[in-house]
Write a structure and sequence with these properties.
Number of strands: 11
Strand order of the largest sheet: 1-3-2-4-5-8-9
Shape: globular
Strand content: 15-25%
Number of helices: 8
Distance between the termini: 37 Å
Amino acid sequence: MPLAPSAAPFAVDGGGVGVLLSHGFTGSPASLRPFAEHLAQLGCSVRVPLLPGHGTTWQEMNRTRWPDWYAELDHHLDQLRRRCSRVAVVGLSMGGCLALRLAQQRPDDICAVVLVNPSVASSDHRLLAVPVLRFAVASIAGIGNDIKKPDVVEHGYDRTPLHALHSMTRLWRDVGPRLGDVHQPLLLFRSREDHVVDPSSARLVLTGVSSAVRDEVALSDSWHVATLDYDAPRIFARTEAFLREHAGPLEPAPVRAPGGGHRAG
């Protein structure tokens, strides 16, 4: 299946601090590209994988399930751990739920967790129909591009595949009851106005994790995809400070100069 150009994964090998970023349900790495580029400029080794079923068609996504999405992140975490002394995970929306699962499953490999409008539950009663409805209807209207800033595009699907949506709710059921297994320092950004994820998710995370550090930052000028919205610079700056405190010095990797020598990047 051809990959949309905007959905390409992003990877940079930098210094000894790694950051693994996960996009959200029906989204793509485009939603995190400016964030990842900022972290790479700070000297981090960065990975933003394209989750299976994303970046092509919603029909393709309907053939994938949450273990497929999680396995892709797990693979890239292995890559970063081989080259980095410390690795943090960042998740947007459903990507936040996947990031929390990584923190639960691999506590020794993750030093910090950053979440942007994480999706771990919903109070929307319409979801109760999805287990049956998915066999009658393949998709419903899309949930992407919830951005306050005009003329900014997330590059996600315009339809919501229901088999995949049902699988995401099963991911919630896997992660939610074990939030207490998350002990890493946690930074959570929450948009005051979010038309995709309701406030119950942030409350569940902040009250459920065992992290001694659990910082919440309320965003007043962004909607769901806050990493592309007006508050993006605030997210980048606050995350930088958080990583410096909990992941260690952020130093650019040496850059090979002409003639075989090295110079500071």
